[in-house]
Design brief:
With 134 residues, this protein is mostly helical. The protein has four helices and two strands, in the order βααααβ.
């Protein structure tokens, strides 16, 4: 029986959203919470519709992250707010505060929670002993 001459696995990725984690509250409600101190109350349903179209437009207009994720998401966030009825001048004046808040929220447990049946794991759980790769 011949040994496999396969390349070792170097990277394993997971599509975590709705597989391992879920938003703590719906995304459009989280946007409404962040926007309110800067832009006033925006209808969450308008935000939901606006986010979808802002995301799709930005995805088509600018290849995802070609100039970095911060700039790309800034465009999505700006288009979402304006599309939901926010004043464009108010959005421009507060974008530098809202974007970091939303990026931080959606890159942490502030914005997401693990499914009840998801098992906690750290990088050490996926690290193989050095001699297992040969």
């Amino acid at each position: 029986m011949a040994l496999c001459q396969c390349q070792p696995i170097r990277l394993v990725t997971f599509d975590a959203l709705y597989t391992l984690v879920v938003p703590r509250i719906p995304v459009h409600l989280q946007y409404a919470q962040v926007f309110e101190p800067y832009l006033g109350v925006l209808d969450p349903l308008d935000l939901k519709k606006s986010f979808r179209s802002a995301f799709q437009f930005t995805e088509k207009d600018k290849l995802v992250y070609t100039k970095g994720s911060h700039l790309w998401w800034s465009q999505v966030i700006k288009r979402t707010a304006i599309g939901a009825g926010a004043d464009e001048n108010a959005v421009d004046a507060s974008l530098s505060q809202m974007v970091p808040q939303l990026l931080r929220r959606f890159s942490s447990k502030e914005g997401y929670k693990a499914f009840d049946d998801a098992l906690p794991a750290g990088i050490e759980d996926f690290t193989l002993p050095a001699n297992s790769l040969t």
